[in-house]
Automatic annotation (TrEMBL):
PROSITE patterns: HTH_TETR_2. It comes from Flavobacterium pectinovorum. GO terms for molecular function: DNA binding. It comes from the Bacteria. Keywords: DNA-binding. InterPro entries: Homeodomain-like_sf, HTH-type_Tx_Regulator, HTH_TetR. PANTHER family: ACREF/ENVCD OPERON REPRESSOR-RELATED, ACREF_ENVCD OPERON REPRESSOR-RELATED. The lineage of its organism: Bacteria, Pseudomonadati, Bacteroidota, Flavobacteriia, Flavobacteriales. Residues 4-64 form the HTH tetR-type domain. This is TetR/AcrR family transcriptional regulator. Residues 27-46 bind DNA.
Length: 186
C-alpha cells in the first residue's frame, strides 16, 4: 500500500470506528488494528489523535462543500422567479436532518471531541470561516446582503441538523419561512 492509500485508509477506518463506537471508542491502537498497520506506522502518518481527527474533519467538510457546490452549480438565477428557486434549493440543501447518515453522526462526534481538543476546535472554526465565505459568494449572486443572510443560515442549518425533527414546523414550512425572511433582505 502506498503512502496516499495508507492515509486514505486510515481516515476511512477512523470514520467507520467513529460511527460504530462514537468518540469514546477512538484510540490510535484501535485505528491501527483496523488498518492492519502498526501503531508506529499510524503515528508516522498522524503523530497523534488530534491531527488524525482534524484530517477526518477536513475530509468531511470538503465533502459537504463539494456537495453544495455541485447541487447549486446548475442554478444561476437570471430573474426573480429563478432567484426564488435558487433560494429554495439552497435552503433544501442546507436544512438536512438525517440522524442516521454517516455524515451527521461523524460531525456530531467531531464537535463533541472538539470541546476537549483546542486544535480540533480551531480547525473546525477555520472550516466554518471558509465555509461561510463560500456561502457568502454563492448568496452574493442573488442578494446584496450576503453576510447577513449567511449569518442567519449557517447557525440555523447547523442547529437544524441536530433538532430538525423536534421543531414545530415541517421542513417545507421552515423553508417557506426562511424564504420569506431572505426575500426581505436587500
Amino acid at each position: 500500500m502506498n503512502k496516499l492509500n495508507t492515509k486514505e485508509t486510515i481516515v476511512k477506518e477512523t470514520i467507520n470506528l467513529l460511527k460504530e463506537e462514537g468518540s469514546s471508542g477512538i484510540t490510535m491502537r484501535k485505528i491501527a488494528a483496523r488498518c492492519s498497520i502498526t501503531l508506529s506506522n499510524l503515528q508516522y502518518h498522524y503523530p497523534d489523535k488530534s491531527i488524525l481527527l482534524q484530517t477526518v474533519a477536513q475530509y468531511f467538510c470538503k465533502k459537504c462543500e463539494e456537495n453544495i457546490e455541485e447541487e447549486l452549480k446548475a442554478l444561476t438565477p437570471k430573474n426573480k422567479t429563478e432567484e426564488k428557486q435558487f433560494i429554495k434549493k439552497l435552503l433544501e440543501i442546507l436544512l438536512k436532518y438525517d440522524d442516521t447518515s454517516l455524515e451527521s453522526f461523524v460531525f456530531r462526534e467531531i464537535w463533541a471531541l472538539s470541546m476537549r481538543d483546542e486544535q480540533l476546535k480551531s480547525s473546525l472554526q477555520k472550516y466554518y470561516e471558509d465555509y461561510n465565505n463560500k456561502l457568502i459568494n454563492i448568496v452574493a449572486v442573488i442578494k446584496n446582503s450576503p453576510e447577513e443572510i449567511v449569518s442567519l443560515l449557517t447557525p440555523y442549518a447547523e442547529g437544524y441538523s441536530i433538532i430538525g425533527k423536534s421543531i414545530p414546523l415541517t421542513k417545507n414550512k421552515t423553508i417557506e419561512m426562511l424564504e420569506k425572511i431572505i426575500q426581505n433582505f436587500e
